[in-house]
Specification:
Number of strands: 0
Mean pLDDT: 91
Number of helices: 7
Largest sheet: none
Shape: elongated
Structural class: mainly alpha
Order of helices and strands: HHHHHHH
Radius of gyration: 18 Å
Length: about 150
């Protein structure tokens, strides 16, 4: 916890905390990143599950995977910035810990997805990746829900 207390006192964190403009911008960018990530994951997983059959599978999922990875990077950067402002408080919140656990589970699920045949070129043919696709939808929806609850608990 001492490390988290020190993190909160760093000059860039204090500047973000006290800025009338920077904090709302970072917060908005976090929401945009999470929304973009969740939307692209949802659309990609729905396509894996058979939705949108008129859309070419490989180009559609390739594009959405890139969008999801960029959005994830943005969410991590902005999320860490927001976390740093109240690190000791957030680290003690069960809902924050649930959110972090869900993110780790979603990452593990993605690795399972790749191992089961979710690499480019084999995704469309493999029925084995349907379970990770459903789990992905559930896990990332849980991340969004837990993230929203942080602001209300």
């Amino acid at each position: 916890m001492e490390f988290l207390a020190l993190l909160q006192q760093l000059p860039p964190v204090q500047a973000l905390k006290s800025s009338f403009f920077a904090y709302p911008v970072v917060n908005a960018l976090h929401i945009i990143s999470i929304g973009t990530l969740w939307s692209s994951v949802l659309l990609m997983d729905l396509r894996i599950l058979g939705a949108f059959p008129e859309l070419p599978f490989k180009p559609f999922t390739r594009l959405l995977r890139r969008v999801a990875l960029i959005a994830f990077g943005g969410a991590v950067l902005t999320g860490f910035s927001l976390f740093a402002i109240k690190a000791t408080e957030y680290a003690a919140m069960p809902v924050f810990l649930v959110k972090m656990a869900l993110i780790l589970l979603a990452a593990a699920n993605f690795l399972l997805f790749l191992r089961l045949g979710g690499k480019e070129g084999r995704m469309e043919d493999s029925r084995r990746i349907r379970i990770p696709a459903v789990l992905s939808i559930l896990l990332w929806s849980g991340v969004v829900l837990a993230g929203r609850l942080i602001g209300f608990l």
